[in-house]
Structure formats: C-alpha cells, structure tokens
Design a protein that fits this description.
Elements: H1 5-14, H2 18-26, H3 29-32, H4 36-49, H5 52-63, H6 70-83, H7 86-99, H8 104-116, H9 119-128, H10 142-164, H11 186-190, H12 208-223, H13 227-238, H14 244-254, H15 271-276, E1 285-297, E2 302-308, E3 318-324, E4 336-345, E5 348-357
Parallel strand pairs: 3-5
Antiparallel strand pairs: 1-2, 1-4, 2-3, 4-5
Helix pairs in contact: 1-2, 1-4, 2-4, 4-5, 4-6, 5-6, 6-7, 7-8, 12-13, 13-14
C-alpha cells in the first residue's frame, strides 16, 4: 500500500535521516503548506539538523494552525532554551504541563533549567547535542536496534564461519551499500587510461595504478561514511585521464553520497585547501564560519557574501558568495557557521547554503 509523503518523512526522521526528510517535504510545499503535521515535521527535522532559523519559521506556521499541540510547544521551548532565554522556555514548559500533566520531557527540561540552566552549560549542551533530549520525541529507532541486533548475530555467525574455513577468507561484516555493480571488469582494469592524451585535456595525468588506487579509495571512503573524501577521489578521476568506463562508474558512486548535517559532516576541507585546488573539492560539503555581508533577499531567494574566518573580526581568509534556495533567518551582526556545498560558476567559487548556526551568545 502506497504511503503518503508525511508517513515517509516520519519514517526517515525515526531513522535520523533529517536531511532527506527535509528535502522530501520541501518538494511538496505546494500541496501541504497549510497542513499542521507537515509544518511540524519540517520544523522538527530542521531543529535536529541545527537550522534554528528554518525550525522557527515552520514552528510558527504550525502554531498559526494549532496552538496547543505538545510537540509543537516542546519544539518552540527548545528554541528558546538553545538561545538561553530560559524565562520564555519555562513559559512553554508550564503550558505543556497544563495540557499534558506529567510530561516527562517538560519536567526534565524544567529541572535542567532549575539546577544547570546557566548560559555556559546551555552552550555546551547545544554544542555537544545533549540538548536534543528536550526536543520533540521521534520515537524508537527500530532500525538502529535492528542494526545492533542483526550485526551481533552476523558477527557470531561470521566468527563461526571464519573458524570453519581456517581463516582462508576475509569476512566483511558490514557494508554501507552493495557496490558490486561498480566493480571494474577485467576488460576495464586492462584499459584504465583514456587513449586520447591530447595536451591540456586533463587536469590530472594518472598512471593505471593511480587510477585503480583512486577508484578503490573512493569506494572505501564511501563505505566508511567519509563522503567528502570519496568525493575528492571521484573529482580526481573525473578530471583525469581515466577511461570513460571508470568515470561512468565514479559518477554512479557519486549518486550514493549523502547530504550531511552539522553533527554528521566529516573531513570538511578548509578555505585554503579549496582555494588552492578548487576542482578537487567541487560538490564537497563544508562548515565554514565567519560573518556575512552584502545580503540580497527576496521572498524566495537569499544570497550574501561569507567573510570566511572573520568571526572575531581579526583574520579574513577570503570572501565567498553563498546562495540559499530557502531564505534562512540570520542576525547579520553576529558570527555565523554555514553548512554548504561547494560549487563554481564561471570559474569562481561559490557555496550552496543548506543550514546555518548562530550562537546564542
């Protein structure tokens, strides 16, 4: 039986795939924009991603439809708590307890505010993610439980198998995805390099061994959830003298890479690295901090310049244009961290912004 988009989004959020849930829901705004559950789901997903501006916007839209929903009030209380506005947060928690006496999250949040709710502790809990225990609940992640139970069983069976074959075969207990279709054939391994080696055709001239090594690294990094490192190896191959077959399979592998959040991004390259060899980092994700200037905003678009490294107004590493498909909520005078994807236009570096974070301080 076909499930509607809201059910699919809930399932993704239970699996903690918030970025996928947001993209899915945003693609149905023309249908669900006045739906309470739709706005609440989008707000909650953005809250877990750390995009407090978008979370605030969707919580407010949900509140315009329904005022007293417990998860709505928990979400809005969490926003105030993150900012250190404990008085406003307490107002929401008291309203929750009035409508839902004994609510465990509201009770624990009030105890936190009473005994530990100083500004520095709130900042630390926000930074480490511990603050999420006061967010609207997502339900039990049955996939994670299964991910613990079944690998344990698989490990036991694998150990038995390993002993039975006297260690002759290497056992692979866990893979992120089945990449068997991307294994290079014998013919492809014998023809790893492009035949046409016209001068200036490729940014990187690689030996057959280097092409093979780069392709295998890309798959290894992907399986280890290091998508940025995988993207770098893919870019190296796409800009090299690798054969068309290798490039086709590298492109397919690129389609497996996922969008990270502030709490999941790995191997974020520095501004200096990207400037030195930008083609190698295209489509990688970064978290860069600084301040914003030259803001241009309409109802549907937002662009600005990010002054990279200038958060303390001391060292300016560079200036990069940033574009957001969905306008974020930003305080222009405060430092900012931006989660974005590296792109280029007319040979110039730019960022496709995905989420922003500004300290409550």
């Amino acid at each position: 039986m076909t499930r509607d988009i809201l059910d699919v989004a809930r399932s993704l959020m239970i699996r903690r795939q918030f970025g996928k849930a947001v993209r899915l829901l945003e693609g149905r705004s023309n249908i669900y924009s006045r739906n309470f559950d739709y706005n609440l789901l989008l707000a909650t997903a953005n809250l877990y991603l750390g995009d407090v501006g978008e979370a605030s916007r969707y919580f407010q839209q949900a509140r315009n439809i329904k005022l007293t929903d417990t998860n709505l009030l928990l979400g809005q209380a969490a926003l105030f708590l993150r900012r250190g506005d404990t008085d406003r947060a307490l107002t929401y928690y008291l309203e929750i307890l009035e409508n839902d006496p004994g609510n465990k999250i509201a009770t624990e949040a009030m105890d936190f505010i009473r005994y530990k709710g100083d500004f520095n502790t709130i900042c630390r809990w926000t930074d480490t993610g511990r603050i999420e225990q006061f967010y609207p609940p997502l339900g039990v992640n049955v996939y994670r439980i299964a991910g613990i139970f079944f690998p344990v069983v698989a490990c036991i069976l694998g150990i038995v198998l390993a002993f039975s074959v006297m260690g002759k075969h290497k056992v692979n207990f866990e893979n992120r995805a089945d990449l068997s279709s991307l294994v290079l054939s014998v013919s492809e391994r014998q023809n790893l390099q492009e035949k046409d080696m016209s001068p200036g055709s490729f940014a990187y001239i690689l030996s057959a061994g280097q092409i093979k090594d780069s392709y295998e690294k890309a798959q290894m990094y992907f399986q280890n959830y290091r998508d940025n490192m995988a993207q770098i190896e893919i870019n190296r191959l796409l800009n090299s003298n690798a054969s068309v077959f290798v490039k086709q399979k590298a492109n397919i592998l690129m389609g497996y890479l996922e969008e990270p959040g502030f709490d999941t991004i790995k191997d974020s390259p520095s501004y200096k690295q990207v400037q030195a060899e930008s083609r190698l980092y295209l489509d990688c994700w970064v978290v860069w901090s600084g301040r914003i200037s030259n803001v241009k905003q309409t109802e549907t678009q937002y662009s600005c310049d990010l002054l990279v490294g200038y958060e303390n107004m001391e060292t300016l590493e560079g200036i990069v244009p940033v574009h957001f498909a969905v306008p974020p909520v930003l305080e222009n005078e405060k430092p900012v961290k931006i989660l974005a994807k590296i792109k280029s236009a007319d040979g110039k570096l730019l960022l496709e912004g995905r989420a922003v974070y500004q300290s409550v301080q």
